[in-house]
Predict the structure.
Amino acid sequence: MFPVKIALVDSGLGLLAAAAAVRRARPDADLVLSSDPDGMPWGPRTTGDITARALACARAAAALSPDALIVACNTASVHALPVLRAELEPAVPVVGTVPAVKPAAAAGGSVAVWATPATTGSPYQRRLIADYGNGAEITEVPCHGLADAVERADEPLIDTAVAAAARLTPAGVRAVVLGCTHYELVADRIRAAVRTPGTAGPEPALYGSAAAVAAQALRRIGAEPAPAAPATGSLAVLLGGRPAALTAPAHRYAEGRLLAAADGTTRGTADGSGRTPAEVAE
């Protein structure tokens, strides 16, 4: 095996799911998390603004010489992917994130696509469903406030937003596509909310993108998964291009704790103090 460094870009904590997937596949991989807390959420912004902000995050990450960059954000992938690839490739392969409509629809049965209100009903999502829906019965579900609640790790607001989206989801749906990377951080809550009590058959399957984009990033650089590799990977966090540490809300999620626990040395702290990311956040 050769050393691997993967960078990830998102407006906020949505990149945690894909970063954790990379960490599980390659515990020895160095990770760079570059986000834009001052500008999130990106969804309501114009294409030009989203592109500029995603490009700024990508440039900050590229300065740390990653082998590949994951755009761990559906919105940024829709609006900014061509610009990011034009600037960074071929030196740094850029992997976008697309909602997993194709595999969800291929399995048959009814499908719900949970997405932000800005994405739900958008020409992009409608094209995705038309091209890869495979004739399945697909319901688009706007998840008002869910991404923001996840970003803040606000437990009551998460429960409220998940419950509201679940009420818009048809009973007995066979699969739910998580059309925003933030949603993967609360996948268990979503699964519980869409389960229909008293109905026969399996509970709905959830389709996220984190594992797929992590695998694609490794393929693009010719690296093999090695989940048994030593957990020696480092962690660098950039907030608005500035070195930082994992935020306190990040530690509220299993994915954030995995990233912090895998690297509690000075390699994982932006300030070089020797404190763990949790200690720095406090």
Observations:
- The domain at 101-208 is CATH 3.40.50.1860 (Rossmann fold).
- The CA atoms of residues 1 and 33 lie 23 Å apart.
- The radius of gyration is 18 Å.
- The longest helix spans residues 47-62.
